[in-house]
Amino acid sequence: MANLLLSVLVVVILLGGPITLFAVIKILNTVWGGLSLKFIKTAENPINLVVSWDEESFEVKVTRVKLEFAELVPGGRSLSHSFTFEDSSAKKRTFAIPLKFNEKDMAMLTDSGLAGNPRAVFRSSATVEVETLDGETRRFKISKSKIVKSLQAVQVLDKKIDLIDDMVPDTWSVQTRVFPWKKVVEEVAEDKGHKKAAVGGPAAPRAPVDFTVTKVWIEPGCIVCDACEAEAPAVFWVQADTCIVRENAPLDDPAAIKAAAEGCPVDVIKYTKVKVAV
């Protein structure tokens, strides 16, 4: 029995030791040497996005940086911009991109939030994706409050940082990766003359559905973005720190419930349905 326990211990040390050591090294490299980013203010530019890493320890070639911003409140603003480098010009050292956005987009990142909504800053954040030549993508999420704080003081850009002052956002940028050297078919929706919906409802008539809803519930994880109540105010009630299904809520508008579930950014709205003939 003792020999068996000793054998198991040796196996654990042999297998667990290297794995544990590798995990520790990986974590340390990510924290102190891997890709990182920050927003800084300089005398020349009000907002600069700095992408950095330990160049001596990591061979990184950055080909694209995408910045998205969103306010998760009713009427919230959003933006999406990307900066792409050709493969032959992929960035091999720490660099900074001065953000030369229009006045409206600059305000989203620096102002005190959507007017009249005190929760706007608290529920606002920027997501930055850094894509490398080998196809890997690192995603960073930074709260707006942190961005605003980092832009309060003017800083001097380190001389080791490559300033890309002639960089402008991609005019072809979309939510998914599309390259300008590839053929893109742009579709323009026809104006169907839809009437504008009342405040709190959908922007256009919903397509009919072939089912009825028998039950609706909300799983943990609600971020209180108000989107569901805007789609189906008779069913959902957004409160200070969560959202609930109203007591005795009518389930006679399955299309609205479906739209609310599909529009939930964290996918916590669930419902059961029964198929019917249309």
Could you please describe the fold and organization of this structure?
The protein is built from five helices and twelve strands. By secondary structure, it is of the alpha+beta class. A four-stranded mixed beta sheet has the order 1-2-5-8, with no helix packed on it. Strands 4-3-6-7 form a four-stranded antiparallel beta sheet. A hairpin with a 4-residue loop joins strand 10 and strand 11. The termini are far apart.
Spell out the blueprint of helices and strands.
Blueprint: H1 2-32, E1 36-40, E2 48-52, E3 62-71, E4 78-84, E5 95-98, H2 103-110, E6 124-132, E7 137-143, H3 144-150, E8 162-163, E9 211-218, H4 227-231, E10 236-238, E11 243-245, H5 254-263, E12 269-275
Parallel strand pairs: 5-8
Antiparallel strand pairs: 1-2, 2-5, 3-4, 3-6, 6-7, 9-12, 10-11
